[in-house]
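Late entry, inosine 5'-triphosphate complex.
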Amino acid sequence: MLRYVTTNAGKVREAESYLAKGSVSQLDFDYTEIQAGSLGPIAARGAREAYRHADEPVLVDDAGLFIEALDGFPGPYSAYVEDTLGIDRVRELARDLEDPRAAFRCTLAYCDGEGFAASPDAVDRGDRAAAAAAGPTDADGSNEREPAALPVKLFEGYVPGRIVSPRGDGGFGYDPIFEHGDETFAEMDTERKNAVSHRGRALEKFAEWYADR
Ligand code: ITT
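Prediction complete; structure with ligand written out below:
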């Protein structure tokens, strides 16, 4: 059974259309989110931790909102910023900028304890320097603070848009202030959001690859 690792029910709702019913279930596991400038290393580290916890194939979903005129902020810090500032304050910040462009990004990280080829999607084989810095290593390459570098396959999705005043009551998170085309993501139903969204694009790539695995 594939475990979709997230504490966010909104993500699960969107993922369901791409993953065969009965072959996947949510794992409500709050993995350690390391500080990093991009989503890949965070998701890869989370997938290793979740795989060790679940002992089953796992798929971690890490996403964020990247505002162009703020050099990509809040990006990997999107969850913290939503919890502390809230989306109305993010909207206010963006209103003072001349350029409202932003993007959502999603990185899915898959780990089942086995290796795989990189092409065409990236494989994170772990940051051995970070592992070494974390302390002494066991014979199998692991240590308590930094799980060994199990291979993790990464699938990425991206969608461009604009930050606008909140509209709509669907979706979750930053959806009401993210406009793509003429609608915010909160004005779209799940099917329409999936057809264009960062998560939809990443899930599409994953589902195609996973069908052959
Ligand atoms: P998990 O880590 O348990 O999966 P989370 O909601 O904290 O749940 P992320 O760290 O990936 O997930 O999310 C970063 C932030 O971006 C968080 O505030 C989400 O609400 C928001 N977010 C992620 N995907 C989104 C989407 O499709 N639409 C709107 N906001 C989204």
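The chain has one domain: 2-210. Will revisit in the morning.
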